[in-house]
Specification:
One of its GO terms (molecular function) is glycosyltransferase activity. This protein folds into two domains: about 230 residues, Spore Coat Polysaccharide Biosynthesis Protein SpsA, Chain A; about 90 residues, no CATH class. It is built from eleven helices and 13 strands. Strands 1, 2, 3, 4, 5, 6, 11, 12 and 13 form a nine-stranded mixed β-sheet that branches.
């Protein structure tokens, strides 16, 4: 970190940073998350918001604010398309990409992100995300276990912040910092699904195509306000439709053939058993129906996945799946 700070002091002018926000019917969140962004301790940044066809009064609220650039989509184009729009249209050399329900709580966060990036020359960085009103979290970075997903137990924030940072396989998608050109050069978010093909895919792709590592800053915490979205069964079931095919597309695009074959059965069992559990817990057959739909969607899109695999594997700089050796920290 000190190396990064020294580099910043040597700069004649700090680089412009774009704070990009994707919004869909998030008026209640925007009223809380937008105002703090106007008072950050950084000399040159812009706020760019993409509205994905909101039906609430988000745009009416935003129209009353100054110093926000807004891109208005007539319809909801999906998470990945909306986020890619932000990056393509960003004027900054660096981008802090946020969901509309993420509350930035550190006025010096841009300087912290930038100085760390300069010290590590990394791919992607994220803060720790904590649900509003809670003192523990599982949103401190993603890891893969020996047979697919690594578990992420909930940990007290007071224990997490004892560390400054840690290398992770995947950053938290609700708040990520990166260099714009890096994002563009490795191919942006995969737009074949409206959900789930964001950081989990691009973080691994970044690593195998460039060798750049990803980090979570444990001394920097943002608040996640949108907890209720995880509880609503209808919205959860919609997301489930894209979780299994998304995980399989990430696997078959980015992993070695040996590991893709090895992990496929365990990923299937993970989502199948999880769907059965949630069907009982939520008392709704909508969940298992969503999983069946997701399996059929996976089969339909598999030929295109294999086509994309050929493109990515041919450009690999890191030939083995070394990211699988990145371990979750013990707290």
């Amino acid at each position: 970190m000190l190396t990064g700070i020294k580099t910043l002091f040597k700069m004649k002018k700090l680089p412009k940073i774009t704070i990009g926000i994707l919004n869909y019917n998030g008026l209640d969140y925007l009223r809380k998350t937008i105002p703090p962004l106007f008072s950050l301790n950084y000399p040159d940044y812009e706020i760019l918001l993409v509205d994905n066809g909101s039906k609430d009064e988000s745009l009416k609220y935003l129209s009353k604010l100054n110093n926000i650039r807004i891109i208005k989509n007539k319809n909801n184009l999906g998470y990945c398309v909306g986020k890619n729009q932000i990056v393509r249209n960003a004027k900054g050399i660096y981008v802090l990409l946020l969901d509309e329900d993420i509350l930035v709580t550190d006025k010096s966060c841009l300087l912290k992100f930038l100085s760390f990036h300069e010290s590590k020359k990394c791919g992607f960085i994220c803060p720790v995300l904590v649900n509003k009103g809670e003192r523990a979290t599982s949103m401190y970075g993603g890891f893969w276990g020996p047979f697919a997903y690594g578990t992420r137990p909930t940990v007290k924030v007071s224990n997490i912040i004892k560390r400054d940072y840690i290398e992770v396989v995947g950053v938290e998608g609700g708040a990520i910092f990166f260099k714009k050109n890096h994002f563009l050069n490795i191919g942006l978010y995969d737009e074949t699904q409206p959900y789930y093909l964001d950081v989990g895919d691009i973080n691994i792709r970044s690593y195998i195509l460039t060798g750049k590592k990803n980090y979570s800053l444990y001394n920097l915490c943002f608040i996640h306000l949108g907890v209720q979205r995880k509880v609503d069964t209808k919205k959860w079931a919609w997301k489930l439709q894209y979780m299994f095919p998304g995980a399989m597309r990430i696997l078959w695009k980015n992993f070695t053939l040996k590991n893709a074959l090895l992990f496929s059965p365990t990923i299937f069992l993970f989502y199948f058993c999880g769907s059965l559990y949630q069907t009982v817990k939520r008392r709704s057959f909508l969940v298992i129906k969503s999983f069946i739909w997701s399996f059929l969607f996976f089969l339909k899109s598999f030929p295109d996945t294999i086509k994309e695999r050929g493109k990515i594997q041919g450009k690999r700089v890191i030939k083995s799946d070394l990211f699988l050796k990145i371990k979750r920290p013990s707290f």
